Amino acid sequence: MSELASTNSAKCSQTTAADNKEKATAAKPQEQEEEEVDIDLEAPETEKAALAIQNQFRRFQKKKK
């Protein structure tokens, strides 16, 4: 009887370890290749967009207080 119990507990621990590996693998985000974005940082429309985003963020921070 004790041999049967030790065999069952060994099987349970093996399946638990396998389940934990699967969960850990599923929790990690899949590595994706980074897409290279070519943005001209000196372009006037880029600068205008950056200023608009910064102003919106500042307004948000003021409202937050």
UniProtKB/TrEMBL annotation:
Region described as Disordered: spans on this chain: 1-46
The text of the family note is: Belongs to the PCP4 family.
PANTHER family on file: IG-LIKE DOMAIN-CONTAINING PROTEIN, PURKINJE CELL PROTEIN 4-LIKE PROTEIN 1
Q: Which PROSITE patterns match?
A: IQ
Q: Where is the composition biased (Acidic residues)?
A: 32-44
Biased amino acid composition, Polar residues: 1-18
What is this protein called in UniProt?
A: Purkinje cell protein 4
- Origin organism is Pagothenia borchgrevinki
